[in-house]
Amino acid sequence: MKNYHTHTKLCKHAQGMPEDYCRVALQRGFTDVGFTDHTPLPDDLKAHIRMEREELPLYIGSVLKARKMYPQLRIFLGLECDYMPKYEWYYKDFILERMHMDYLIGSVHYYDFRGELMWFDGRPMHPLQYKIYADLYIKAMESGLFKFMAHPDLYCTNVYDWNKDAEECAKAILEAAQAMHIPLEVNTSGMTKAKAQNTTRLPYPREEFWAIASDYDINVVMNSDAHKPECIDDFFTEGKELILRHGLREVPELFPRF
Ligand SMILES: [Zn+2]
Ligand SMILES: [Zn+2]
């Protein structure tokens, strides 16, 4: 088993350090663990849900420490990056190159709509918002910075009844992923969230999104987006079932062995 989307307590809304995740991963038969905590940002956007900039060396050190402690595992150093065009230089020149990351993953958790910062809090969306989300998500892919793109169907958190705008948003993202050969993530943490909130309504992975995805020639990568060590393989059985149900293709090796 593999998980390439993992957080740590440094982001202020998760538990455990890399060594704690790796201990559980090893017990559960994992071969690969990739750490991708929320990147600190130059303008401190939503600083309360990410590590401090000064903590980057501590974060990197903790992943390298886990790598030493668990040589049986392949452990990768990365970060989850909130994409906005204004951060591109920072991700490329500072985070990726100067901090020697193995990889970055791209996310769109926030976007500007009519001068207001929006996120996925369950509020129904204006048709234009779907378009803005899709455009930003595609721009993130075009930046070439990301190994894969996280939860493309996150916007479905705000979609109650599947509709034409939601469908067009899905198609735009899927078409771009196919053209650019960038894997898209089946993120099982939406199931963890639904369970915690005691609801059957999954924010993601969204069935309708992945049903459309089956028409495209894309790779997917399944991750738990774990925010607690024991959640490292949360809902992997259900995630695999979804992948099979829609005939999706998992990326054979995100990090090929040489
Ligand atoms: Zn998080
Ligand atoms: Zn995440």
Protein architecture, described:
This protein starts with a strand and ends in an 8-residue tail after the last strand. The chain is 36% helix and 16% strand. The protein has eight helices and ten strands. It is an alpha/beta fold and 258 residues long. It has one domain (2-249): TIM Barrel (Alpha-Beta Barrel). The strands form three sheets. It has a five-stranded parallel beta sheet with strand order 1-2-3-4-7. The protein has a three-stranded parallel beta sheet with strand order 8-9-10. The chain has helices at residues 18-27, 56-69, 88-98, 127-142, 164-180, 189-196, 207-213, 236-245; strands spanning 2-3, 32-38, 74-82, 103-107, 111-113, 116-118, 148-149, 184-187, 219-223, 249-250. It is globular and about 50 Å long. The structure holds zinc ion (ZN) (2 copies). One zinc ion binds at residues 5, 7, 80, 225.
Mean pLDDT: 96
- Helical run tally: 8
Order of helices and strands: EHEHEHEEEHEHEHHEHE
CATH topology: TIM Barrel
The largest sheet is:
5 strands, parallel
Low-confidence stretches: none
CATH architecture: Alpha-Beta Barrel
Number of strands: 10
